[in-house]
Predict the structure.
Amino acid sequence: MPKHPNNTLPADLGKFILRVTLAVLILFHGTSKILHGIDPIIGMIVKTGLPPAVAYLVYSGEVLAPALVLIGLWTRPAAVVIAINMTVAVLLVHTSQFFTLAKSGGWALELQGMYFFCALAVALLGAGRFSIGGAEGKWN
């Protein structure tokens, strides 16, 4: 591998791979919400006593934030939004599965856990130099 000053190339490539993987996989969920609507989410939100408009925040967590993470702009706050989105999703839909195993033997919430912890990692690591905001960007 070619050397970059302070040998940051491997770290920046790792940040890029983590960032792109997280963003693309969450964007699939956001695309589904765009194509099919969020009526089920509105129903769950209303059951908790919150106003239906709160359900529209899912677009922030599954479309806007992943798009920002993907391009590497305001990466850290966008990753925090994804982590919050995953927390809300678990609380609304998956609470009963928190301490259970899947039929395959893994944690029933391993996908949600992976998204949550990857988002936290991106929030802590930042975007790296392969991003619109650059490695030195204030929010990257």
